[in-house]
Amino acid sequence: MVKSPMSRKLARNCGLFYPVIGFALLVTFLYLAFGDLWGFNFSREKIKLSFVERNGTQFFVDGKSFYINGWNSYWLMDHAVDYSNRPRIRGILQAGAKMGLTVCRTWAFNDGGYNALQISPGRFDERVFRALDHVIAEARKNGIRLMLSLVNNLHAFGGKTEYVKWAEKEGVALSSSNDSFFYDPTIRRYFKNYVKTVLTRKNIYTGIEYRDDPTIFAWELINEPRCMTDPSGDTLQDWIEEMSTFVKSIDRKHLLTVGLEGFYGRRSPKRSIANPEFWAADLGSDFIRNSMLSTIDFASVHIYPDHWFHDKAFEEKLKFAAKWMLSHIEDGDKELRKPIMFTEFGLSNENEDFEPAQRDRFYKMVLDFIYKSAKRNRSGAGSFFWQFLVEGMELYNDDFGIIPWERPSTYELITEHSCRLAREHGVLPTQMEHLKDFCASTRL
Asked: What's the pLDDT score for residue 175?
C-alpha cells in the first residue's frame, strides 16, 4: 500500500500522537467508571426545584397549588448499586417526566442482606449510599421529585424484622413478635440513628445534604405500619409521635407522612362502615388518629380491593374503591384539614376474572377522583400507581407491575391525567417541555 504525504506525516508524529490519545482515553474511562469518587456533580444543571409546601388541605410550589400524578418504583436505589443498571434509573425517570408525572415514591432503606444500605445498626455501605445519591441526582436532572420511605413494616428489604434481629444479637430480651420494633428502646435508638444518618447525608453528586434538597418531596416514616400485638393503637401512635418529632427536629424543610394504608382503628366511628372487613380495625393503626399529629403534614392511603376481598367480583371491588377514596377525601376536608395522598393503588393480574381492560377502568376511577378533587380545590392531592418498571426487570415485578408505554390505552390515561391537572392548576416549569408535546390539542 502506498502511503500519502499526510499518512507519512502522521507516522512521523506517532510518538506524540498515540500517548496523547491513550491519556485521553484513560481520563474518559476513569470519569465514566469512578466519577462519583471524585465528586463530579450536577451543579451546572439548569433545572431549578423549590420545596413543596403545605397550606391547609393543599400542596403548593412557588405559590401555586400542586396536585400530583405520581408513581412507585421502589427498586431505584437497589438497582442503581450496579453501574450497568443505571441506564434503567435514567430511563424510568425520563419516561415519568415525559408522561407529565411529577413525584416518584421509592425506598430509601435496605436493612441487612444483599445490597444493604444499613449493614447493621450504625454501619452503612458507602457503595449503596452512592447509589441513592445517584437516584436523587438523576431525579433532579429530570425534574422529578421523590417521596422517600425510611423503613418497611414488611419483610422485604429487611424492615422492622431485621431491626429486631439486630437487637436480639446484642442480647436484648424481646417478645416473639417483630412489633418490638415499635416499643423497644434499643431498637428506637437504632432507627433514630438511621434516620439522622440519611437526613444529614451529603450527596456526592450534588453536594447537597438530603435535608436541604428540594428534589425530595417528602419523607415517609414506614411503609404500611401495623402493630397487631396492640390493636388499641396506642403503641403505634406513640412510635409515630416520637419518630415524627425526631424527624422534624432535624429537617423542617420537608413534608412528612406516616405511610398508612388508611384503615380505621377500633376507636374510629368509621371502623364498621368504611373498612373493607372487620379485621382492618384490629391492625393497631388508625387513619384519623395517626394522621392528626401536628408533625404529620399529610395522610397516605393505599387501594388494593382485590387483596382485601377474595369473594367479590370486579364490579363490587370497584364500588368499594370509589367509596374508600371518597371517605378519605372527606376526612381530609373535614377532620384532618390536610392533603390526602393515595400513595399506592393497583389491581392484581392474578385474579381469576382478570382482564387488562379492568386495570384501565380501575386506574381511570382513581385518577378521576383526583381530578375532581383538584377541580374543586379539595384535599385529594394526588395518586401513585403501583408499580412502574422498564423492560428486562422481571425479577422486580409483582402481580401489579406494568410497563406503562406497552399498553397504549394505559399510557393515554396517564398522560391525559397530567394534562387535566395542568389545565386546572398550571404547569410546573419542569413539566413545560414535555406537556407542550402531548397536551398540544388543549390549552394549558
From this structure: 72
- Beta strands in 62-122, from DSSP E residues, in sequence order: 64-65, 68-72, 103-107, 118-120
The three-class DSSP label of residue 72 is strand
Residue in 144, 134, 66, 136 with CA at minimum distance from that of residue 101? 144
Name the DSSP class of 407: S
Q: Enter the DSSP assignment of 335.
A: I
275: Cα within 13 Å, side-chain hemisphere: 21
Quote the CA–CA distance of 275 and 272 in Å, as a whole number.
6
DSSP 263: -
The confidence score (pLDDT) of residue 202 equals 98
Yes or no: say if 106 and 149 are a contact pair by the CB < 8 Å rule: yes
Hey, CA dihedral for 115, 121, 126, 130, is it positive or negative?
positive
Query: If you average pLDDT over every residue of the chain, what do you get?
Result: 89
Query: What's residue 444's pLDDT?
Result: 53
Strand partners, 312: none
- Which of 138, 141, 160, 140 is closest to 149 using CA atoms? 160
Q: pTM of the entire structure?
A: 0.89
Amino acid identity, position 270 = K
Given a contact cutoff of 8 angstroms between Cβ atoms, the answer to whether 290 and 260 are in contact is: yes
Percent of the chain with pLDDT strictly greater than 70: 88
In 3-state terms the chain splits into helix, strand, coil percentages (rounded to 5) of: 45, 15, 40
Strand spans (E) along 182-262: 216-220, 255-257
For 55, phi then psi, to 5°, come to -135, 105
What confidence category does residue 443 fall into, taking pLDDT thresholds of 50, 70 and 90? low
Q: Which residues are catalytic?
A: 224, 344
